[in-house]
Design brief:
307 residues; alpha+beta; three-stranded antiparallel β-sheet; 12 strands; binds ligand 6CS; binds fe (iii) ion
Length: 307
């Protein structure tokens, strides 16, 4: 894999995953590895876990954090949500006006910065990406009871490649349950193995797309026929578990989540670990880059493997 260097101009970096350019939806094989590390890398992931992530595109760690520790993070989230927040990093639900997401929490709140650098998480990112890492994006998704709306099917990488300029697939998302995730309150659903194909989307990216897509995404979403084929071939899984459980999933894994009409909030905090060898360049969609709060460009604060 040729790594993009900051000195390279965007034109010198090949677009290995063109999307939103053709009028017909199509898929292509992934050209990047899924797992960059190996079992003897000192990160604690077993050969079986690395093989499972390579095959499925995700790993679930039930109760990686003890309840009393995660309760303090959930309390901090409630405090943030209660404040409401008027900055651009606070995204409201389109219908109810409730807080849907708060972005860049790893930079704006010390307790979440510390959590994003916790060795229980970073060792897994190091094992999968086999390099130093940094936080490409962080957010809390509150998905409150009764009014928490869905996140339609998508590949994060498709957006990060087209709208943020992420060159290659060498990033992993980590979703930490801050409340119990049940089968019923809108857990993250994945299509196992879908990370091995890149689903190119159709349609032109609207200007300032993020101002709409973070509330309800309509562009950069996979075609229903392709989704139907992949779901029929590979099924749909919804890894659930109590607060403190953690889901690591590949940047290109198709995922989404249903609305939450139960009384039980489904709040998660997400950290996206990107390899320092895969830093953002100009967006491959040839559009202005999204703001720093959704895509770290200037504030790269590396987390060193041997740090
Ligand atoms: O556009 C993004 O970066 C965000 N959108 C979704 C639906 N998932 C990834 C990320 O939070
Ligand atoms: Fe996503």
């Amino acid at each position: 894999m040729s790594t993009a260097t900051p000195e390279m101009t965007r034109k010198e970096i090949p677009d290995c995953y063109p999307s939103r350019q053709l009028t017909e939806p199509h898929t292509q094989d992934r050209v990047d590895p899924v797992v960059y590390g190996h079992a003897q890398g000192g990160h604690g992931l077993s050969e079986a876990q690395l093989l499972a992530f390579d095959r499925d595109g995700y790993l679930f760690f039930p109760e990686l954090f003890p309840r009393d520790e995660i309760r303090s993070y959930a309390g901090e989230l409630q405090r943030l949500a209660a404040k409401g927040g008027t900055g651009p990093e606070t995204i409201l639900e389109p219908s109810s006006g409730d807080v849907r997401s708060i972005f860049q929490v790893h930079r704006n709140h010390a307790v979440f910065r510390d959590l994003s650098r916790d060795r229980r998480l970073t060792r897994i990112a190091f094992g999968l990406l086999d390099s130093d890492v940094y936080i490409h994006q962080s957010r809390v998704n509150l998905k409150p009871g009764f009014v928490g709306k869905e996140f339609y099917w998508h590949s994060d990488f498709e957006t990060w490649h087209v709208e943020d300029g992420m060159p290659r697939m060498r990033a992993v998302s980590c979703s930490i349950n801050l409340t119990d995730n049940h089968a019923t309150n809108g857990p993250v659903m994945v299509i196992p193995g879908s990370h091995r194909q890149f689903v190119a989307c159709v349609g032109q990216t609207p200007e300032n797309h993020y101002q709409k897509s973070l509330r309800r995404q309509e562009y950069g979403v996979p075609d229903q026929a392709i989704l139907s084929r992949l779901a029929a071939e590979r099924g749909i899984e919804a890894p659930v578990g109590p607060a403190g459980s953690v889901l690591f999933f590949d940047c290109n894994l198709l995922h989404g989540s249903n609305s939450n009409i139960t009384p039980f909030p489904r709040s998660n905090i997400f950290f996206v670990y990107n390899s320092t060898l895969n830093r953002l360049t100009d967006p491959f969609g040839n559009i202005p880059p999204r703001p720093e709060f959704v895509a770290t460009r200037d504030g790269v604060d590396p987390i060193l493997r041997n740090g």
